[in-house]
């Protein structure tokens, strides 16, 4: 969950750490605009995040998950 207090940690620090250790995918829920940022590792680097509303796709599982943010 992204909040003003952890924005830099989630979008900069965690991304760099996850990339360094080869985390293949991770997601950030943005309650303010009810979206999810999806990060996927490609050739050792995260591609530009994909922004989705009310759903996100797990490439590793081959599933699209839907949700409601109140």
Textual characterization of the structure:
Strands 1, 2, 3 and 4 form a 4-stranded antiparallel sheet that branches. Strands 5-6 form a two-stranded antiparallel sheet. The two termini are 13 Å apart. It has 1 helix and 6 strands. The mean pLDDT is 83. It is flat. It is of the alpha+beta class.
Mean pLDDT over the residues: 83
- The level of helicity is 10-25%
Span between termini: 13 Å
Strand count, sense and barrel status of the largest sheet are:
4 strands, antiparallel
Tell me, briefly, the overall form: flat
The count of helical stretches stands at 1
Tell me briefly what this model is:
The chain has one helix at residues 7-20; strands at 25-30, 35-42, 45-46, 50-53, 55-58, 63-66. The chain has 70 residues and is α+β, with helices and mostly antiparallel strands.
Write the layout of secondary structure elements.
Elements: H1 7-20, E1 25-30, E2 35-42, E3 45-46, E4 50-53, E5 55-58, E6 63-66
Antiparallel strand pairs: 1-2, 2-3, 2-4, 5-6
């Amino acid at each position: 969950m992204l909040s003003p207090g952890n924005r830099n940690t989630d979008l900069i620090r965690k991304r760099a750490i996850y990339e360094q250790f080869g985390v293949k995918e991770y997601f950030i829920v943005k309650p303010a605009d009810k979206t999810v940022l999806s990060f996927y590792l490609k050739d050792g680097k995260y591609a530009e995040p994909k922004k989705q509303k009310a759903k996100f796709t797990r490439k590793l599982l081959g599933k699209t998950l839907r949700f409601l943010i109140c």
